[in-house]
Amino acid sequence: MSTRIPESVYKWLINAQFALFPGTCIHCRQPSYQHSDLCDSCRLALPRVKNPCTVCGQPLPTDNVAVSRCGTCLVLPPGYCRSVIPFQYHPPVSALIAGFKYRHKLTGGRVLSEQLACHIARQYQDYPLPSMVIPIPLHNARIRQRGYNQALEIARTLSRYLDITISRGIVCRTRNTTRQTGLSARERQRNLRSAFAIVGDFHFAANTSVAVVDDVVTTGATVSELARVLLKAGASEVHVWAIARTVA
Ligand SMILES: [Zn+2]
Ligand SMILES: [Zn+2]
After folding, report:
1. Span from the CA of 236 to the centroid of ligand 2 (angstroms)
2. Do 113 and 202 belong together in one domain?
3. SS3 category, 212
4. Angle (deg, nearest 10), helices 185-192 and 221-232
5. What's the total number of domains in the chain?
6. What is the pTM of this model?
7. Nearest ligand for residue 60 CA
């Protein structure tokens, strides 16, 4: 069983840490002058997704506030019902994520995860948070190669900031799917078929909504496939939380 540091103690530790060692911006390397390793001007310059579809997170082609879903999600809704993804997968976010994912630069991942946590808190002001977060599982071979699952690292930060439970061991990756980079949407879907499986005979309790957590959403094929598996196991709703997405 994991032990959790009480939230008040955790916040005190963070404040004490930044009082002793002022933050250094991960992007411009200047002192951040605040309780974060990201300075205000770099934070404001990060490429945000403007006016996203509430379901898939792609920018909507209209500024009309009455429109909340894109044409694709209206015609063919994916299994998940909501996406909360603050950033476009453009520099410097793309470089920070690549460093986090492939070169063990965990500070960049933590700082972006903190930004994601703030964004989620704002998006759910009038809406209950899901019951749990599920990091997209990596195949064991990939974890051995990388040393960690980046989605779990993001989920840890979200859990701490949003006080939400991380659920592990419910679903696993059954196949070490080839890298998705460079594949078309159809090839990605084929590549992911039966890539995830529920462990044992697990079934969600009634009214359990879940948020799946990933670093980047590209075509949405991975989160769609995981959502399908989780809904089949009784999840009431699947939300998608990610740092960035590629935009059309
Ligand atoms: Zn900066
Ligand atoms: Zn959409």
Report:
1. 20
2. yes
3. strand
4. 40
5. 2
6. 0.87
7. 2
Of the bound ligands, which one is closest to the alpha carbon of residue 46?
A: 1
Indicate if 52 and 23 belong to the same structural domain.
Answer: no
User: For the purposes of burial, counting CB atoms within 10 Å of the CB of 52, is it exposed (0-12), middle (13-18) or buried (19 or more)?
Assistant: buried
- Residue 246: count of CB within 10 angstroms of its CB: 14
3-state secondary structure of 144: helix
The pLDDT tens digits of the residues spanning 52-75 come to 999 999 999 887 878 899 999 999
The model's pLDDT over 229-245, given as tens digits with 9 standing for 90+, comes to 999 999 999 999 999 99
Residue span of the structural domain in which 141 resides? 47-245
Residue 14 · residue 35 · CB < 8 Å: yes
Same domain, 14 and 59: no
Distance between Cα 44 and ligand 1 center (Å): 9
Q: Mark residue 207 as left, alpha or beta (left: phi above 0; alpha: psi -120 to 50; beta: remaining).
A: left
Ligand nearest to the Cα of 44, by number: 1
Q: What is the largest CA-CA distance in the chain?
A: 54
CA-CA distance, 45 to 178, in Å (whole number)?
34
